[in-house]
């Protein structure tokens, strides 16, 4: 799922670099991009516009939508459950972004060596990325289970009282978010690894000659030289942090009592379990606006702050 | 001498960290070879009691006979292969135009593709579902296949990046020979691109294989289930039969692990090269 955004905008001159002149008939490119344009219209732009319309209606997919203006949004704002869900979404993002950045970078620094067998470890850490969230959810549910789970048995063996990872209202959301970090950190590790390998080894060598220790050279050289990679990973972890439907579905179904329910999961719940299409569309639109604001903010920061850094 | 010890410590750390990533897979496999009684042993056993006995594959057999996993695997393989082929067609065409051609609206299309990567599927899923309902495509594979023939952002970026790195001399030589745009694409550029195309095929196939929401919404007949949907349904029905559930998980993961084992270098490299651009 995450691998679908493995690229970011490239500036205009880069697009043109290869072909400074137009060597083809003017309409030929449109033949090449026709399916893409149709796809963008039919599955992205049109749905985004019609979701806005649906969000002003009451509708159960049967019959025709009843226009009720802002009633869905009014209901959202006054709903305690919705406030909880927004809070959950933010909390999930927070845990996910921090966890993924820290683990991704730590793993990359750790694994950035040339040794025999390193490819095996790299692949092992990447393995959860290509595994379905359903299978990941099943095995972690089993491992985190209260009586028979291996993790709680281990905690008991050490003489402590293990928590109810998925049944505890305070813990469930963080547990799912942590499993999602486990699943995806290999992916960010690879991106960080590419950033690390772009750093000129001579700079690190000369720092060592000057007497810098490992920690100094990490914070004084590696981190500043990786500024744009760090920002890029920050961007995609924020975007990815909203995409948690599958793991929540496999692990908690949003429970207990909405404790691990998030915006994406609530859209599914209202649309395809309760058939409240209008209300679900309003939730989807809140989600869309949050993601859009994040994206605009990212573009702005990238343009004004990050591009000059390295 | 100092570096040697440091790197041994590092290897030890790497090994410990890898255990965190491998252990759940080990647990999935070892517990899938346990009898109903053994799996609920406290404290948990690490090695399945059915291993190397006559009944070794009994859980797997049950998953195949009681739950028809073979059919679902077959469904997933052909449907998502077709979808992945769709991605190759549409992304190579668009990637070529975006990297090699000049036309108005190019940057607009490019920006829209970037934006579509950002938006969670739940934002557009309701109108999409309604569209397929109106087209009478529900409970067929068309909603899982047709969109793949109509735009894919990641693949377009991957191939655009690749095409723009094909040596300029090749392009110039072809121009001098007087090829038109279609010949340039089909005869010059496409034959060069077998490696990124293979990578894209595998990544698209894996993503679809693992997808839950769309196949869950669009497929309702049991016989049309994909592997991931089947596993998820299985989880709902056999909540307490963990050994069967884990055997099903192994079966759903195994084909991808085999593909990944052979292609991991290319998949990881494509993440490295496309992930860092910008």
Question: What layout of secondary structure does this protein have?
Answer:
The complex is a heterodimer of chains A (310) and B (278).
Chain A lengths: L11 H5 L11 H27 L2 E2 L7 E2 L3 H8 L1 H32 L6 H9 L6 H11 L6 H8 L14 H27 L2 H9 L4 H12 L1 H15 L3 H7 L11 H11 L3 H30 L4
Antiparallel strand pairs in A: 1-2
Helix pairs in contact in A: 2-14, 3-14, 4-8, 4-11, 6-12, 8-11, 9-10, 11-14, 13-14
Chain B lengths: L1 H31 L25 H10 L1 H32 L5 H13 L2 H14 L7 H4 L7 H11 L4 H9 L4 H9 L4 H17 L2 H6 L8 H11 L4 H35 L2
Structure description:
The complex is a heterodimer of chains A (310) and B (278). Chain A has one domain (79-306): MetI-like (MetI-like fold, Orthogonal Bundle). Helices cover 68% and strands 1% of the residues of chain A. Chain A has 14 helices and 2 strands; from the N terminus they run ααββαααααααααααα. Chain A has helices at 12-16, 28-54, 71-78, 80-111, 118-126, 133-143, 150-157, 172-198, 201-209, 214-225, 227-241, 245-251, 263-273, 277-306, and strands at 57-58, 66-67. In chain A, strands 1-2 form a two-stranded antiparallel sheet. The mean pLDDT of chain B is 89. Chain B has helices at residues 2-32, 58-67, 69-100, 106-118, 121-134, 142-145, 153-163, 168-176, 181-189, 194-210, 213-218, 227-237, 242-276. The radius of gyration of chain B is 23 Å and the shape is globular. In chain B, 45% of the residues are buried. Chain B is 73% helix and 0% strand. The longest helix of chain B has 35 residues, at 242-276. Chains A and B meet through α1, α2, α4, α5 and α6 of A and α1, α3, α4, α5 and α7 of B.
